[in-house]
Design goal:
Length: about 750
Amino acid sequence: MAVKVAKIAVSGALYYMDRPYDYLIPQEFTEIAVPGVRVLVPFGRGNRRCEGIILALSENSQYDKLKSVISVLDEFPLISDEQIKMALFMRERFFCTVYDSLKAMIPAGLWFKENGKRRVNDKYIEMAKLLISPEDAQIVADNKRRRSVQQANIIEMLCSFECLPSRELLRYTGAARQALTALRKAEIVELYKKEVYRRPEIYTDEILPAPELNAEQQNAFQGISALADAEKANVALLFGVTGSGKTSVYIHLISDQLEKGKSALLLVPEISLTPQMIQTFSSHFGVTVAVLHSSLSVGERADEWKRIKRGEAKLVIGTRSAVFAPVQNLGIIIIDEEQEETYKSENTPRYNAVDIAKYRCLRENCLLLLGSATPNIVSRYKAETGVYSYFTLPNRYNERELPEVQIVDMKKELRSGNGGNISRALENALRENIQKGEQSILFINRRGANKLISCGDCGYTYKCPNCSVSLTYHSANNRLMCHYCGYSKPIDTQCPECGGILKHVGAGTQLLEEELRELFPDTEILRMDADSVTPVGSHEELLDKFRNENIPIMVGTQMVTKGLNFENVTLVGVISADQSLYIGDYRAGERTFSLITQVVGRSGRGDKPGRAIIQTFTPENETIIQAANQDYEDFYASEIQMRQLQNAPPFSDYLCITASGQNEGQVVKACRNIRYMLENSTVGSKLNVLGPTPLSVVKVNNRFRYRVNISCCVNSEIRSVISQILLECGTNKEFKGVSVFADNDPLD
């Protein structure tokens, strides 16, 4: 028999040494060691045990001496051939290892611990069923009733059902375990194990018909549906103002694909959006819906993934990582709120879900639909230039009016003696809403109580010892915390430097909540931020409580700005509209416009008219005025001109190479070396290279971070050069201890 060789992506291989490694397959594993299964292999000089994934098989190798596979970890392939090809695409596009790409496609519940055991085992329950016909069983039950009533009751119950979980069978009949065991020994009843799924709660009532579409929605649906039916790769952009009914169009498109035997994938940017989405879509599609997001338990995620892989789920709803779901026979991928930065991963592999979705649509000849009330500038430009098909929903559903928006100048509030975070106009509007029994949402994009604590005498501020940031004060536990590394300490009663009085500077969700409680002491207030939704599923509980108990006021960060639909919310307040506007990033205006527009759109989605109040220190700013007017087209026209002047995306691509390490001088030296290699490479004349520059937070967890920025029109030749530079940095002993990675269009 010919010797089999497996080409394996190994977990222990760093990027600069990443390649398929050849291993011999022992005779006992030849049947189960196939592409897509995970194996345990010896790796490196110390032969440390590492996990690997078989990419391909061969009958020979260019190497004479090969190590052997130690064990096969999977009974069947978790990774398909198509996913292996996707991993190779990701390695080239996102500068990561093949193993890291493949691991991102597998749910955490199916990963292995260091002891070789899976993080979560499959769940089984014991089932009972009759081994004889119901007619014979009834005779046996009648005969046993005099001697054993419990056994007779078990048999009669099983006569009515094909099989039952043994625990429920015993509970409903009141029988003891011994009675069931006796029937098994008498070969009247069979006991066996059945795998069951751990599933999140979904709508299980009567399936509702698809909602009726108005004329605008119908036109958009017909145009997009025609693209989906073409069965070739297409990208379409659906621009619809907040409340225009994009979700209804999604439902019709998905229903149309499911009727044709296809499957669908729907991505949402935030976990907080999934409860409403799940309820909405499961009410129309029932158990065919699968859910994938990080708020599920690892067991639920693993079981949902298995349902998808086995073809039992035809519609998958989830956040960023759901783009890897092993959906079969895809007909459409929908990315809602496509402009959101949460679709970009900041950890290895540093992928963008939109790019992965485009790849899948290209490979599977299906449609990618991008939907938003504030489309990404690059997407809107591609629609304008004909690269994407373009559809619009310019009006709210049922002709409801957009919220009336008022801009409040906080400089005037200060001059009039109001030094708080809530303007008089917003206070009066909140009081009026409370009296009417209507709800309000207040948005501030900072959690905690205060941005920093400062001494009024000497100017001392608390700094994180591990990061180059100030500590944020959290009033809930009276501690100062770092939002980067998690360091915390109790606050002092006076300045530790001079003994002066400490002042609280800046505001976060906790301080805003405290101010509201002082203004409205008898009013219930709900806070929704990263501190309040840490437990699994708590965001669903908060949203349900806000809706069902008609909580008058909800305070939150970006979690409350998009996708939420509460018919009784008639007032929205934006506390600090300037906060994201002046951060030195070419996307600052786009981020601010999107945040304000999205949160204002949460108001007036029911029959009652909505209104919004935007508090700002720069009321004359063009972006804030455009957001207040909900005028995306005017914002796009001015923003695209600015992008062209800056030669920023979509007019060029933006990449960076980042170096980090504990020695700042060594990190800067590595970046200078990287810049030299870029400028003297074969593509140096095509690149605009800037740096080294420190990141906005230069030190995190005692590691300094600098980067080299590259502006160019990216192609495979440029990616190859960057890849070679990463390989050089990984093998250069001069920069030992410095980590280097490349990223496409980083967020910070």
